[in-house]
Structures are given as C-alpha cells and as structure tokens.
Amino acid sequence: MASEEIMDIEKPAEEVDMEEEEEDDVLKKSFDTIEEIESENPTNAIIQYQEILKNERSDDLATKLKEQCIYKLTRLHTEASRFDDVIGLLNKNGSFFESIPKAKTAKIVRSVIEIVATIPDSLDIQIRLCQDVIEWCKQEKRTFLRQRIEGKLAALLLQKNQLAEALALITTLLRELKKLDDKQMLTEAHLTESRVQHALQNIPKAKAALTACRTTANVIYVTPLLQAELDEMSGILLCEEGDNLTAYSYFLEAFEAYDQGADRRAIRCLQYMCLCKVLQESPGEVASIISARTTSRVLSNKSGARKETPSTMRGMSGGGEREREKEKDGMIEMQAMIAVASAAKERSLEDFQTAVNTYSKQLQADTLIKHHLDLLYEKMMQTNLLKIIQPFSCVEVSRVAELINLPLPQVEKKLSQMILDGHFSGTLDQGKGHLIVYNSIYDDPAFTHGLEIISSLGVVVEALSQRAKNLSKSIH
C-alpha cells in the first residue's frame, strides 16, 4: 500500500520532468521561436517551418512538431492563396508520411482539407485538392484514406451542383465499401447518395438510400452530429412528400443535436422548422419558435460557430471577424423567415415578394426553402385570385390584375392554368380581354350511381342474350 502511494506521488514528478525535457528540446525551442515571428514575417516563418520538416529526427516529440508545422504551413499558404504549395506539402514530405502510422497520415490530410475549407469561396480549390490527394493515395496505395477523400469529394461536387459526377463517384465508392464491409464509411456514403438523389429530385431513390443508411447505422455507434444529419435528411424528404408535421419533429431533433455541438447547421434546421410551420398554415407560430431559441449556443454565440481543433486553427487571422459575420448572417436568416411568415399570415403577395427580394441571398441559396417558397407563392396567388373573382360572372382580366397588383401576362397565365386544372369553371375571352366565370357544377351522386346501374344492367342483358343464342344453337 505504501509503495502504491509512493508511485502516485512520483508519477506527477515524472510528468514534470518530461515536460521540462520538451521545453529544453532544441527543436521545440525553434518551433516556439518561429511561432512568435509568424505574424510579423510569414515568409521567413514558412522557410523555417520547412526546415523543421526536413529534420531527420523521428521521435514522438519531433513527429508532433512536424505535424504542427504542416498545419501552420497549410494555414499560411491558404491565407496567401498559394494553393499549389498546399498540394505540394503532401508530395514533398513523403518520407515523413512513410515514417508515421497510416491513421495519423489520414488525420493530417483531413485536417489540411478542413483548413482550406475555412477560406470563403474555396470550393473549387477543395475539389482540386481532394482530386490531387486521391491520386497521391493511389500512388502510395492508401486505400482507406482514398475512400475517405472520395466521400469528401462527392459531398463537394454536390455543393458545386455537379450532380452527375457526384452520383458516379458515390456509386463506385459504395460498391467498394460493400465488399470491405466498412459500416462507418458505408453509412456516410449512403447519406451522401441520399442527398445527391434529392438534389436530382429523385425522391424514391433518396428515400431508399436513407433507409440503407439507417439500416447500416443500427449496427455501429453513431455520433450525435451524424445522427443529426440523418434526422435532418429524414425531415427534408418528409417535407418534400408534404408530411410537414413529422418533418418538423425531425428538424427539431437535428437542431438540438447541432446546437449541443455548436454547429452552425442548427440555424438551417431552425429555418426548416419555420418553413414547416408556414406550410402547415400556422405562420403565427414562427416568431415564438425563433424567440424561444434565441438562447441557443449558435444564435447567442455562447461557444461560437463550429468548433475547430486548436492545432489546425491556432493563430488564424481574421477568425474573430468571420465569426461575427456568421453570427450576423444567422440573425438575418431568422429575420428572413419572420418576414415570410408575416406575409403568409396576412396572405399578402406583395409583402411575400418583398420579403423574398429583400432576403434573396438567405432564401434562394437553400434548395428546399426556395422550392417550397415558390409553391407557397403559387398557392397564395391562387387563393387570392379565387377570392377576387368569386363575386363576378364576367370581369376584365386587367381589373383582376389591378386588384391583385400583379402584371397582366402573369395573371392571364395563372388564370388559364387554374381553369385547366379545374379550380373553377370559366373561360378567357382573349378578344375582349374578359374572364367569364360559370357557376360551379357539382356531380349529382344519384345521377352517377344511376348511370353505373344502367351500365351494369347493359352488361347483364348482353351476357343473357349471348347465352340464349348459344342455347338455341345447341337445341337445333
């Protein structure tokens, strides 16, 4: 018992000694010195970081410092828009990657891509970087890492709206993963496939891919953020099918999980929740939904936006400004949904169009919101037109356009569609510019049933007549 107590006392002392050794290490001192001059002289810092990478030491401390150097160089090259040098980090440091485990190599490569992703409007660069990394993985025969990066590339191609390329890539990747039976990667790949199919408006295949994703996820541990992605995708597909009540519950689950992880995708889910309420014809609840969640981590900025690892983001210049911009954008997105809900509540096409034009960046960027807002606008226009023409049997189309405050050609087109779809009985007199409205004619159920009975009697009489003829032939 005494020996155990002595060991417990000595263990911290040993750790202190190790820390002191690290502080006295020449390579560590050099790295700390470069960090101090990095902001003042980035060009010189890049040269010295590269010198550390060329060092032949391969102990744990040297490996850790070299990993940090790669992150530092990636950040410096990215901020200076020297993306070719970022790609060159992998090719020029092949000996370092050969000396470390493959799992650590995969972590470093993914972190490099994440650092590049922090730069605005870098989607093309990310795609190119992923393609070059995939080629490098093929040369080095790193199959697992290649599959990871291919999954990332498919998601980037989806963001770029290159849907055919994304679908071809994810289909090939799924075929490989099914042979390897990698459940984690298979779950993520099926989720990406579902998103691609949804973007192609192939809802049945999107649902099938999501079902396969959930089936695979049942046998593995699913992280809270991945579960949130699954719930978000389920809500999107249910919203496309018109089941807005169930979709709202899925979006709520996704929002809470994203918010716990301080992930900015929580704002998108909150937008979807508001959209579901508007589509349920309950726009009055939107303001209360948003106000009840203003204390969330993302909207209140208690923990900032998505968390980044200290090793990859330490010293990122302009990071605070970007966070403030994201916070401002989040509040604007909420204001956009409140404006849309207010217009829907008042059933005002003019206010609705004003809200869409004012917040076009926030509302038109998302495919789901844009699609359903277009449908909502058409539905509101149809309702308003029916309300206007209800008292008339004949009215000038120009007068209808004046009352609804819309261009005449748009009103004529919508009225003709409504007549063809059977929303009301009428005709457009193009010569006089009149809309003639007929009284609605409802089918009489007794008349319909009478016709069915007569038709059935006719069939019976024909059958009896044919039997009578066959019987007379047999007698003769």
Write structural notes for this entry:
- The protein has 476 residues and is mainly α.
- The chain contains 25 helices and three strands.
- The chain has helices at 2-24, 26-37, 42-54, 60-79, 83-92, 94-99, 102-117, 123-140, 143-159, 163-180, 183-199, 203-217, 224-240, 244-260, 265-279, 286-292, 297-300, 310-313, 319-346, 349-358, 360-364, 367-389, 397-404, 408-420, 445-475, and strands at residues 394-396, 426-429, 434-437.
- Strand 2 and strand 3 form a beta hairpin.
- Helix 14 (244-260) runs antiparallel to helix 15.
- The model is unreliable at 1-21 and 303-319 (pLDDT under 50).
Features:
mainly alpha; 25 helices; 476 residues; single chain
What's this model, at a glance?
This protein is mainly alpha-helical. 77% of the residues lie in helices and 2% in strands. It has a three-stranded antiparallel β-sheet.
How many helical elements? 25
Order of strands, main sheet, comes to 1-3-2
Biggest sheet statistics: 3 strands, antiparallel
Task: Give the helix proportion (percent range).
Answer: over 70%
Work out the radius of gyration.
33 Å
Taken in chain order, the helices and strands follow as HHHHHHHHHHHHHHHHHHHHHHEHHEEH
Distance between the termini: 119 Å
User: Low-confidence stretches at least 5 residues in length (pLDDT < 50)?
Assistant: 1-21, 303-319
Name the structural class: mainly alpha
Mean pLDDT score, rounded? 81
Instruction: Choose one word for the global shape.
Output: elongated
Q: How many strands?
A: 3
Strand content: under 5%
